Amino acid sequence: MSWLGLLRRVSRPAAPGLLLAVVAGVGAAGAGVGLMATAAWLISRAALHPPVLHLMVAIVAVRAFGISRGVLRYVERLAGHDGALRVLAELRVRLFARLELLAPAGLAGFRRADLVQRLVTDVDAVLDLLTRVVLPYAVTTVVGAGAVALVTTLSPVAGLTLAAGLVVVGVVVPWLQAAAARRADGRLAPLRGELAAGTVDLLHGLPDLIAYGATGAQLARLGDVDSRLREAERRSSLAAGASAAVTALATGLSVLVGLGAGAVAVRAGTLSGELLAVVVLTPLAVFEAAAGLPAAAQRFAGARSALRRLADVIAAPAPVPEPAHPLEVGPGPHTVRLDRVTAGWAPGRTAVRDFDLVLPPGRRVALVGPSGSGKSTVAALLVRFLDPTAGAVRIDGVDLRDLPGDRVRQLVGYLSEDAYLFDTTIEENLRIARRDATGAQVRAALAAARLLDWVDGLPDGPATLVGEHGVQLSGGQRRRLALARALLADFRILILDEPTEHLDDDTAAALTRDLLAAAEDRTVLLITHRLDGLSGVDEIVTLAGPAGAHADRGAGPGAVAAGSGAVSVAVTA
């Protein structure tokens, strides 16, 4: 998608408001020109002391132009910003909807901090594009044409000079400015995104950077990005200053030529003295409206770059396209089956190959294997974060590719190893899963996750803040709270991905027992690299081979995969 196509799409709902803003802007600028021209004629005519009745029309016109200018300017601002904010709302909704379809597999090419920069700064650039680029150019084009026609009828030389000045200010200066500063303005948005991403990396990775003595190198990289950003902004400012100087020069030249040509016409008797003031002073009002065009053109370069970055997000291909004719599954209990599935996160890179797995209702299966064997890929397939490149994943015989992604995730819950906790209270972190849950249901979920006694012992109870990323909680408490959230959502099929990562053996074994007990009669797929503490599962499946290419089957809960096939081990408590 091109940046212009994206702008057209998001601007369509706000088109009436933007059109009203253009009409009101033309009226306000036209009233300003009319006020200047009429006031100039009135002052010149009044100096000749005519009967006051000869001045009444001009006096009324000055009042009308003065009042309407303020009113129409207010309408322009109101309608223009209302339309622009509607466009921003539409654009943000489209972006968030697209990100929902892309996450997580489709976001591999984007950095988180840079995505935030796109969602905030780049989206705000669209507001500048509409209110400070499109509107000024539309208004100045219409008003400038009318003013040139007016002055040309009085003095052709002055009119042509005014037209040339407007062309220089509105076309030539922006073109030269763009040629001189295209690289600077076009690089502003990417450099800001790079600086934001580097700053977030520095803050989040500071302990590791200090430990490895790499802080100086990271700061040097950030300093280099900051220097390039400041240089781009300096070039942009130089271009803006030069354009302002040219605008002032064009204004003065138009006034001087108008004065000279008008004086000659007055002496020749082809122009009255009262109208000379109109010829001389009208360009001042016109260039007041046109003065912002060079700055508008400069903003256009940055806004276009920002829109291109947003269009890249919108145009990114979805890794799991929604079905054109979605199917439905029954109320359950549900059976999940993976039939000779092959999948990977990137083209040409296979994470699992020819993998089979069956999850009957109420079955507890442990999927075991070393890091990189494809365990998390299997989990992503089950919640349709990924689609297989070969084979099929089915629920009750229905291919997941025939189900909407949201429907799949209503049936299958995924508790990842890095489940996110929001910087809010314990209760609010739970209610993310089910906003209409009662207090009793929240307490039941906490009790099932073995957290209720601890929460009740806190001074603020469920209203206790967990801090950013759950920093106020221990590792085990964070995992239990994430489990309570999954239990509150009441998924009938639950995937637990490395729930005991970074915990010691005793704590990991105790947490595994509690997790399986809390799951009650749900179907559970426990993903882990530990072979101990799995007495609570019904079956152990071991993934092995390079990049999890094969799933091996053998006998014994501690069996090590060797060769192709699949290891399925029945376990009794």
From TrEMBL:
<feature type="transmembrane region" description="Helical">
    <location>
        <begin position="20"/>
        <end position="43"/>
    </location>
</feature>
<dbReference type="InterPro" id="IPR003593">
    <property type="entry name" value="AAA+_ATPase"/>
</dbReference>
<keyword id="KW-0812">Transmembrane</keyword>
<feature type="transmembrane region" description="Helical">
    <location>
        <begin position="55"/>
        <end position="75"/>
    </location>
</feature>
<dbReference type="GO" id="GO:0034775">
    <property type="term" value="P:glutathione transmembrane transport"/>
</dbReference>
<dbReference type="InterPro" id="IPR017871">
    <property type="entry name" value="ABC_transporter-like_CS"/>
</dbReference>
<feature type="transmembrane region" description="Helical">
    <location>
        <begin position="238"/>
        <end position="263"/>
    </location>
</feature>
<dbReference type="GO" id="GO:0016887">
    <property type="term" value="F:ATP hydrolysis activity"/>
</dbReference>
<dbReference type="GO" id="GO:0034040">
    <property type="term" value="F:ATPase-coupled lipid transmembrane transporter activity"/>
</dbReference>
<keyword id="KW-0067">ATP-binding</keyword>
<feature type="domain" description="ABC transmembrane type-1">
    <location>
        <begin position="19"/>
        <end position="302"/>
    </location>
</feature>
<keyword id="KW-0472">Membrane</keyword>
<feature type="transmembrane region" description="Helical">
    <location>
        <begin position="157"/>
        <end position="176"/>
    </location>
</feature>
<dbReference type="InterPro" id="IPR003439">
    <property type="entry name" value="ABC_transporter-like_ATP-bd"/>
</dbReference>
<dbReference type="GO" id="GO:0005524">
    <property type="term" value="F:ATP binding"/>
</dbReference>
<protein>
    <recommendedName>
        <fullName>ATP-binding cassette, subfamily C, CydC</fullName>
    </recommendedName>
</protein>
<dbReference type="InterPro" id="IPR014223">
    <property type="entry name" value="ABC_CydC/D"/>
</dbReference>
<keyword id="KW-1133">Transmembrane helix</keyword>
<feature type="domain" description="ABC transporter">
    <location>
        <begin position="336"/>
        <end position="570"/>
    </location>
</feature>
<dbReference type="InterPro" id="IPR036640">
    <property type="entry name" value="ABC1_TM_sf"/>
</dbReference>
<dbReference type="InterPro" id="IPR011527">
    <property type="entry name" value="ABC1_TM_dom"/>
</dbReference>
<dbReference type="GO" id="GO:0045454">
    <property type="term" value="P:cell redox homeostasis"/>
</dbReference>
<feature type="transmembrane region" description="Helical">
    <location>
        <begin position="275"/>
        <end position="297"/>
    </location>
</feature>
<dbReference type="Pfam" id="PF00005">
    <property type="entry name" value="ABC_tran"/>
</dbReference>
<keyword id="KW-0547">Nucleotide-binding</keyword>
<dbReference type="GO" id="GO:0140359">
    <property type="term" value="F:ABC-type transporter activity"/>
</dbReference>
<dbReference type="Pfam" id="PF00664">
    <property type="entry name" value="ABC_membrane"/>
</dbReference>
<dbReference type="InterPro" id="IPR039421">
    <property type="entry name" value="Type_1_exporter"/>
</dbReference>
<dbReference type="GO" id="GO:0005886">
    <property type="term" value="C:plasma membrane"/>
</dbReference>
<dbReference type="InterPro" id="IPR027417">
    <property type="entry name" value="P-loop_NTPase"/>
</dbReference>
<feature type="transmembrane region" description="Helical">
    <location>
        <begin position="134"/>
        <end position="151"/>
    </location>
</feature>
